[in-house]
Amino acid sequence: MKHLSGLDATFLHLETPEMPMHVGSLNVLDLPKGYKGDFYEDAKNFMASRIHLADVFTRKLALMPFDMTNPVWVDDDDIDLDYHVRHITLPRPGTNRQLQQYVARLHSSLIDRSRPMWEFYIIDGLKSGQVALYTKVHHAGIDGQAGVEVGKAIFDLEATGRVVKPPRSRPRSSGYQLGMAELATAALRNTAQQYVKLFKMAPAIARAISGIASPDEKAAEKDTAAAPKKFNLFAPRTSLNVSITNQRTFAGRTISLAETKYIAKHFGVTLNDVVMATVAGALRHYLADNNELPAKPLVAGVPVSLREAGDQTANNQASMILVSLATDITDPVQRLKAINASSNSSKSTMKRFKAVILDDFPTFAAPWLVSGIASMVGRSGLVNLLPPAANVAISNVAGAPFPMYFAGALVTCYYPVSIASHGTALNVTVQSYNGRMDYGLIACRRAVPDITEIGDYMLAEHKLLMDLTQKHPAAAGAAPAPVPPKTVHEPADDEAPAEAVAVAAKKKPAARKAAPEKAPSRAPARAPAKAPVKAAAKKAPAKAAARKAPAKAAPAKRARAPRAAAA
Prior knowledge:
Elements: E1 2-3, H1 6-13, E2 22-30, H2 39-48, E3 59-62, E4 72-75, H3 81-84, E5 85-89, H4 96-107, E6 118-124, E7 131-138, H5 144-154, H6 180-213, H7 217-226, E8 248-256, H8 257-267, H9 271-289, E9 299-305, E10 318-324, H10 332-354, H11 367-380, E11 392-397, E12 405-406, E13 409-411, E14 415-417, E15 426-433, E16 436-444, H12 451-468, H13 498-505, H14 542-548
Parallel strand pairs: 5-6, 9-11, 11-15
Antiparallel strand pairs: 1-4, 2-7, 2-13, 2-14, 3-4, 6-7, 8-16, 9-10, 12-13, 15-16
Helix pairs in contact: 1-11, 8-9, 9-10, 9-12, 12-13
């Protein structure tokens, strides 16, 4: 058996029917040319040969007596693949929006805790002829970076796959769960070890706290100069910061990784700063549409990995910092620089605490109490009254820079599907993959009924930042970066061209109504590897564009996108 750390178990204790605590991804796959088989059966056989490569697929929870302390992971030697790997066929016409809506519904249901806590779905019926893979794994056993390592177990670098050595045979255990006495003894032993660890770290924790109370003067001056001038203790309240239901809505968008790096290098900021600026600009437009943009800047909760280099353990090793999104600043470039300053200040503070942040802490007699409080807070409406710590969660995960294959099919995209929580109804997670930045937006459907608008505004904000690199000089000391080549991005069927969205965004904000059903089109085509995938409609005179563009533009007729070349 293996004990869950305090941080891992927290994702179990905080889980309620309204707030499932699993993460996942949506991948659209290109089947091999001329493929005539049953991909669901092939995928199931493929997983049968791979599940022993990652612990998350073969372990389940053993709960402690009376739920007095954290559960433990135990091996499950009876994996029911027909349960864990499932098959869904979309109804006609099989559009990209239908796929994303179905993923949102699948993501809203809890994972069975009596089995290994993962589910894979093979989804066909897409009008493009492609198939989709939706995965979900409970956050108690994995974080973003550990998820990348799990991906290495199930994805290949070639369509032909690789030879995987079968697992060693082991004798089957006689019992379905461990005995009460065995669990109670293990719980007491682990709790004692946690208290000893906490006692040993007490001096280091005290030094870190005293360092914050009286920091080095030079470091303090540097942080004060870099810190934003309008950062508040609490974030302003918006329609995103409410108690949520179990209903979900999801949207995926793709932005060029090469262009994102170019923007970051030109303005002398980090890639993550550009990601946050893209989301900040989108939220600024989205809230202004309904005349609810607050005077104070929005705040993002940003996960920070505590994982040491080379650590591939399938658990959670992360903390969180708060970063101002500077949505009170009109100029996009100044907003980007303010985000960079706030991020640097928060990271500097985190570095002082990083060595003493505990991911394992005593929880004796706490699990049932934490679960009760989480349920009460979510259903009482208390979240609607308290000031939020953050308005939105934004996470950026570095993925594979090369094409990957699943069961012989090419993975064309890697949209993350994360967690919406009480008080933070919108989560934006970004995964880089093969020259792309795939944005996954997940939210409570009642709080954010028109999530596709946020996705469209993100494309427009990225294009605006890209255009501004031609009008603003490069940051001091920044080496000139080559301008990424211009390519055509074929927007998804729920996505308006970025130019049209940008024109609509400049118009006078009007009250937002419920999002209408978008006209179906075809599922997303694969973008060229390591090439920009932003929308690029033909340019028209500014006056004509402003006169003809509707407030909510529909996708224009598009040419077939070129097929991706395997690296």
